[in-house]
Design brief:
Layout: H1 2-6, E1 14-15, E2 37-40, E3 46-52, E4 55-63, H2 64-95, H3 101-119, H4 129-148, H5 155-161, H6 173-188, H7 193-216, E5 220-221, E6 224-228, H8 229-252, E7 257-258, H9 260-279, H10 288-305
Antiparallel strand pairs: 1-7, 2-4, 3-4, 5-6
Helix pairs in contact: 2-3, 2-4, 2-5, 3-7, 4-6, 6-7, 6-10, 7-8, 7-9, 7-10, 8-9, 9-10
InterPro entries: Phytol/farnesol_kinase
Organism: Medicago truncatula
Protein name: phytol kinase
């Protein structure tokens, strides 16, 4: 997967720059080298004695890969805890009738994916960091799977994620959603803007489209009476803005550098194509959580590549 993601952009709509001391750049970076060991006091690892003022002081040395492991495990625990806190918060708001179930479900759809995307820079620069990040949606994938198959029952999860309270719904849109989160982390990670734009369109664009469409979608699209002009316009605008915002976020952290006037029309075109795909009457055949991100990935690759 690393070889795939590292060859996605041979041309420079998005360019690399020299990485900061502790950041990895994309799209074509190689991981920065680090010292073989990092010294910690009282670490239970290899030790050596040195003579200082005719006394021996024991120093302990922890391999750099052990420090990296601790870093990534801590980041995984933190992101996983944040994900559960987010779902629990909206579940609680739904139970207390502060917001309705439909709005809660869509806000979770929007925020969980975007917060996952925002969390990527928390992980280390090692090649294995993406696997630790992907563990977070994997846990949710397994949780949806066992509940969808009725092996266990979590009423709060079913109420906050499904439309009609049917556990089998968990095996469709929600399961595809976390699958795309895993795919983006494993294949693209911070080395390619493809995953960034795809998640921005799936979470920010498609999520907002449903909220706006349900509230203000009286004018339906002629070729699909289940979709509205208001929803599609909202997806186009918010998908574009969230995509640009996320790219700027990664740029500010030193992961990517781009020419704003060059990137804006390309992201606008990708957003337009994704919006058209979302508006098509194919939901019964291909779920939006599959069609929108996969088409976005393909169009982003072709657009940024050229």
């Amino acid at each position: 997967m690393t070889l795939l993601s590292s060859h996605l952009f041979p041309f420079s709509s998005v360019h690399c720059r020299s990485p900061a001391t502790t950041t990895t750049t994309f799209p074509w970076n190689k991981p920065t080298t680090t010292n073989d060991t990092v010294k910690f006091l009282y670490s239970p690892s290899v030790h050596r004695s040195v003579r200082l003022n005719e006394r021996f002081v024991t120093r302990f040395i922890v391999p750099a890969n052990a420090q990296d492991l601790i870093h990534n495990v801590g980041a995984t625990v933190g992101v996983l805890g944040g994900a559960y806190a987010l779902v629990f918060s909206f579940d609680d708001l739904t139970r207390r009738n502060v917001i309705d179930q439909g709005l809660s479900r869509k806000l979770v759809h929007i925020l969980s994916g975007l917060l996952f995307l925002v969390s990527w820079p928390i992980f280390s620069n090692s090649l294995e960091a993406r696997y630790f990040a992907a563990f977070v949606p994997l846990v949710n994938f397994l949780r949806l799977l066992v509940n969808g198959l009725s092996l266990v029952t979590d009423p709060g999860l079913i109420k906050s994620v499904t439309r009609k309270g049917d556990p089998k719904e968990l095996l469709r849109g929600p399961l595809y959603y976390v699958g795309i989160l895993m795919l983006s982390a494993l294949v693209f990670w911070r080395e390619s803007p493809i995953g960034v734009v795809a998640l921005a369109m799936m979470c920010g664009g498609d999520g907002v489209a449903d909220i706006i469409g349900r509230r203000y979608g009286s004018m339906k699209i002629p070729y699909n009476q289940k979709k509205s002009w208001a929803g599609s316009i909202a997806m186009l605008i918010f998908g574009f803005l969230v995509s640009i915002g996320m790219l700027y976020y990664y740029s500010a952290l030193g992961h990517v550098q781009f020419d704003l006037w060059n990137i804006v029309p390309r992201v606008a075109f990708v957003s337009f194509v994704a919006t058209v795909v979302e508006s098509l009457p194919i939901t019964e055949v291909v779920d939006d959580n599959i069609s929108v991100p996969l088409v976005t990935m393909a169009v982003t690759f072709l657009t940024f590549h050229h």
